[in-house]
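WARN  no MSA supplied for this record, continuing single-sequence
INFO  ligand: FE2/S2 (inorganic) cluster
INFO  echoing inputs
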Amino acid sequence: MEHANDITLTVNGTQVSRRVQARQHLVDFLREELGLTGSHLGCEHGVCGACTVRVNGEIVRGCLMLAVQADGCRVDTVEGLTDSKELSEIQRAFHQRNALQCGFCTPGMLMAAQDLIRHGRSASRERIREHISGNYCRCTGYQAIVDAIEEVLNGKA
Ligand code: FES
Ligand code: FES
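INFO  complex generated
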């Protein structure tokens, strides 16, 4: 039988305690245990960025981190940052510029974009592209995504 651990963490501002299997990944925990399905599961190998969440203020791949490793941590997901309105500006820019089509990459892309926005004052398009290079989008060709991030980051409408 697989080893189970009791963990307590703060997810989107609420403390939760659960018994988890040692090998359960954080993104599976968030989706299956807590019903937070905004973080998506794509490659499951740390490549596509669909599973991006924030742990103790830094963005991480939810498919590479185990739920037990988040014990005692503060985890923020796209749902939490939407509720707190932290994402409202970048969400508006994505919407206005049609920076999404199927939407599968969008939660992870918003989390990555917001990470740049909250840490940086301004950035070139190259720097924006570099920052989101770990987030794959199969639909948009990235142009509109970079436009939206640039608009919020550099105040360019
Ligand atoms: S599902 Fe985690 S990086 Fe692709
Ligand atoms: S909008 Fe479809 S993968 Fe990005």
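The domain at 4-81 is CATH 3.10.20.30 (Ubiquitin-like (UB roll)).
INFO  checksum written, moving to next record
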